[in-house]
Design a protein that fits this description.
Largest sheet: 7 strands, parallel
CATH topology of one domain: Rossmann fold
Number of helices: 11
Number of strands: 15
Strand order of the largest sheet: 3-2-1-4-5-7-12
Structural class: alpha/beta
Helix content: 40-55%
Distance between the termini: 37 Å
Order of helices and strands: EHEEHEHEEHEEHEEEHEEHEHHEHH
CATH architecture of one domain: 3-Layer(aba) Sandwich
Strand content: 15-25%
Length: 327
């Protein structure tokens, strides 16, 4: 199968590329920078931006399937900046896929598209919500992008949206990188004692699920037009997860405990002031507070059954592998 992967510079999508190449698929990628090691695997690298219609169409041409993972992630930036990538860029990919006669598409989304601040306790993948967030541009634009992708599913194109939840593992610069950086700087927040139960996804399990989605999706298949949450299925208190990741990095974590209500007030102030002072990610926002203070774990039965996928690496084994990677 000739497969295009967008956004392959991330740890997760890079692992997907390497796994596809290892099983014999012909793989090409579209991202803004060249990735070391892909050329040796026979991966064709298209350098470009998904906001560039011509670049997207050139990368899609001749493909049988597309895994669309390119996105603008974070909390710094205006709505239009996020929308240009997560909505308009996704539309460019969908248009190229349909015009190019591609039959399979996996859209990489996030559980936050269905999260409006309340706890998610044993919830299935809910419907993506739009227009009910204030200032949280990433989740809002990703929700729009997911709806665009799923609306494209028809008798000629199979589309599935996968929502990996809090992916971490060796080489991850998003979750692991941020936790370790803040722990080293004494700025690791722990909201409400860190008692909220949260499920996460070990890197290799998330990559396996994406490939399972690619194999399962086809026009008129049971997964086409649907969204699925991907997670390990092992909810833990968020304090245990933060401490486990820090210890894997050889740190003695000392999280700063803050009550949820004042943390949210502080987060709102930081959101307004931080972008005027620095271009880096702020240490605390209202979205971060909501994520740290509320439970997030899911009913994965549909994911297991429809994708014929189950995680093969448990959290404790994953932490041991993470520690080995730091050593």
């Amino acid at each position: 199968m000739q497969v295009l992967v967008t956004g392959a510079g991330s740890a997760l999508l890079g692992l997907v590329v390497r796994s596809l190449a290892a099983r014999g698929d012909q793989v090409r990628v579209l991202q803004r920078r060249r990735v070391d090691g892909f050329d040796e695997l026979g991966v064709v690298q298209h350098l470009g931006d998904i906001r560039d219609v011509a670049a997207v169409r050139a990368a899609v041409d001749g493909c049988d399937a597309v895994i669309h993972g390119a996105a603008l992630v974070g909390v710094v930036g205006g709505y239009d900046e996020f929308a240009s990538v997560n909505i308009d860029g996704t539309r460019n990919v969908i248009d190229a896929v349909r015009d190019g006669g591609v039959r399979r598409m996996v859209h990489i989304s996030t559980p936050s598209v269905a999260h409006l601040g309340d706890s998610l306790v044993g919830e299935p993948a809910g419907v993506a919500h739009t227009g009910r967030r204030h200032g949280e541009h990433y989740s809002e634009t990703k929700a729009h992008g997911e709806l665009l992708a799923l609306d494209a599913a028809d008798s000629g194109l199979g589309v599935v949206a996968l929502r990996p939840h809090l992916v971490w593992g060796p080489g991850d610069r998003q979750l692991v990188g941020r936790i370790v950086e803040r722990a080293r700087g004494g700025r690791l927040p722990l909201i409400g004692g860190g008692t909220a139960l949260v499920d996460t996804t070990y890197l290799d399990n998330a990559a396996d699920a994406i490939i399972a989605g690619l194999d399962a999706v086809a026009p008129n298949s049971v997964v086409s037009g649907r969204a699925y949450v991907v997670a390990n299925g092992e909810p833990r208190p968020i304090r245990d997860l933060l401490v486990g990741i820090c210890r894997a990095a050889g740190l003695d974590p000392r999280p700063v405990n803050v009550a949820p209500a004042p943390a949210r007030v502080v987060g709102g102030v930081v959101e307004r002031v931080w972008p005027r002072l620095r271009s880096s990610e702020p240490p605390l926002t209202r979205f971060v507070v909501d994520q740290l203070a509320t439970a997030h774990w899911f009913d994965l039965r549909a994911t297991h059954a429809d994708l014929e996928w189950r995680p093969r690496i448990g959290l404790d084994e994953g932490l041991a592998l993470l520690a080995a990677s730091f050593r």
